[in-house]
Amino acid sequence: MKKTVVITVSVVDDDRMLIEGLAAWLAGVPDVRLTGWAATVEELLATEPEPADVVLLDLLLADRSDPVDNLRTLVRLRRRVLVVSVVTSGDMARQMIRAGAGGYLTKDHDLAALVAKVREVAKEEVAISPELALGWLADQDADRPALSPQERAVLLAYASGMTLIAAARSAGVQPGTARNYLERVKDKYRKAGRPAYTKLDLAARVREDGLAT
């Protein structure tokens, strides 16, 4: 019998009613377990029994701490973070992803949607509310270059860790063509002021721009 892999979750939120409701609901979810809760990031890091797989981070905390600073504190510690907030701004979601969040979910979703996004973040996928993702894809910021479908396909495959040959096969093109697409992508990011010289750089751009959604 296959063993269930449990994803542990910690929450930074000062809404005790929400936390208690989440804890009760997760009691019936076999692969996600709530292991820690705190009203601030500082408190979580001081009291958490052990680092959870995913941290749920609210943006508007009672201590009036800066949301980006809170996120960056967790990211520096290599924590996977899913922002869960009442703020429905696509700009805010984009800012949080670029600062290192693994996903952004608005609080008007149900708990089933939350668990689905937790699973995505645990797998290091970029998890964004569907309505925010649509706005994201429609957005054409100056620093977010427009990529052709072929360029995007090769970029996503290569940045995911594939070799150039494997990425070419995944995108249905020859290795030489795939190389040309990647050079075009790099040139577009360079012209946008966000150079990407290595595979790690490209993976960072994919994450920042939500291209995997």
List the helices and strands and how they pair.
Elements: E1 7-12, H1 16-26, E2 32-38, H2 41-47, E3 54-57, H3 67-76, E4 80-85, H4 90-98, E5 103-106, H5 111-122, E6 127-128, H6 130-138, H7 149-159, H8 164-171, H9 175-191, H10 199-208
Parallel strand pairs: 1-2, 1-3, 3-4, 4-5, 5-6
Helix pairs in contact: 7-8, 7-9, 7-10, 8-9
* Name given to the CATH homologous superfamily of the largest domain: Response regulator
Binned, the helix content reads 40-55%
What's the gyration radius in Å? 19 Å
Please describe the biggest sheet, giving its number of strands, its sense, and whether it closes into a barrel: 6 strands, parallel
CATH A-level architecture of the largest domain: 3-Layer(aba) Sandwich
Total count of strands = 6
Q: Give the overall pLDDT as a whole number.
A: 87
- Distinct helical segment count: 10
Low-pLDDT sequence parts: none
Number of domains: 2
Annotated CATH topology of the largest domain: Rossmann fold
Run of helices and strands? EHEHEHEHEHEHHHHH
Q: Approximately what portion of the residues adopt beta-strand conformation? A: 5-15%
Q: What is the assembly state of the chains in this entry?
A: single chain
Could you give the distance between the termini?
33 Å
* Structural class designation: alpha/beta
Q: Strand order of the main beta sheet, please?
A: 2-1-3-4-5-6
Judging from the principal axes of the Cα atoms, what is the shape? Answer: elongated
Q: Report the top-level CATH class of the largest domain.
A: Alpha Beta
GO molecular function: DNA binding
Modified residues (4-aspartylphosphate): 58
Protein name: DNA-binding NarL/FixJ family response regulator
Domain Response regulatory: 8-122
